[in-house]
Amino acid sequence: MRKSFLVGDYLPGYASVYKFASTPKPTTSAYTADELKERFEQRSIRFQKEQRKYGFGVQIGLALALLLVTGFFNLPMRSDEEIQITFTQQELVQVEEVTPTKQDTKPPPPPRPPVPIEVPNDEVLEDIDLDLDASLDIDEVITDLPPPPPPPKKEVEAEEEPEIFVIVEEMPELLGGIRQLASDLYYPDLARKAGLEGTVVVQIVVNPDGTPSDPQVVKSVAEVLDNAAVEAVMKQRFKPGKQRGRAVAVRMAMPVKFRLKSPNTK
């Protein structure tokens, strides 16, 4: 049986096995060389037009994007209402170094005196007659008595100063709040005329009964405003601070703000 049927368009893969390689068919073009040249020139012209159109579109897009960004940054961002930002003054806490108390060492007790030891003595003492010219009457009433000794003076114990805390479990609270402080605050006329304003920080000690004491100006603006702030703070009453459920003295700072109203504000 002949195996030439394997060679052809049907089974070209088996042609190399049986050594019957098929020869490729020559392809013929339907266009001449001039027509092909003309088609290639037209395609090149069309490609250049598309390329110019694409570059022009990119340039227009970049210009529009630049105009949008520039217009966005030039838009007016201001509003009719003015925003006032007030910064609250943080309370100043003064930390004091507590020096440890020195314990005085007592001197050692003096040594005990030596126990006397009896020493035999051969010296014989002579009898001495004592002539005592005195008599004792038991029934006699004594009239001249010496004055009694004065009573011993009691040592005055030094009063221990109460311990002042800086940080406690429950800090003191101002009774009435800031409104009470503002109602007791007086703005001096001299400061108004001079246009003085600012924040004065007064440091005080709130006692266990809620009264302030020991005022100290930590942050000063002017002497006239400092005196007014101290006077207002000393009029206040506080809820005392507590440490382990017991009212104690606490050192704290009170900011007092002086601010003049502008003529535009109503």
What does this structure look like?
With 266 residues, this protein is α+β, with helices and mostly antiparallel strands. Among the domains are: 37 residues; 95 residues, TonB (TolA/TonB C-terminal domain), CATH 3.30.2420. It contains four helices and eight strands; from the N terminus they run αββααββαββββ. The strands form three sheets. The chain has a four-stranded mixed β-sheet, covered by helices on one side. Strand 6 and strand 7 form a beta hairpin.
Quickly list its features:
alpha+beta, 266 residues, two-stranded antiparallel ribbon, 8 strands
Query: If strands are numbered along the chain, what order do they take across the biggest sheet?
Result: 1-8-3-4
CATH C-level of one domain: Alpha Beta
Element order: H for helix, E for strand: HEEHHEEHEEEE
Q: What is the CA-CA span between the terminal residues?
A: 121 Å
Q: How many helical elements?
A: 4
Shape: elongated
Show the helix and strand layout.
Blueprint: H1 33-73, E1 164-165, E2 173-174, H2 177-184, H3 189-194, E3 198-206, E4 212-219, H4 223-234, E5 238-239, E6 242-243, E7 246-247, E8 249-258
What is this structure, in a nutshell?
By secondary structure, the chain is α+β, with helices and mostly antiparallel strands.
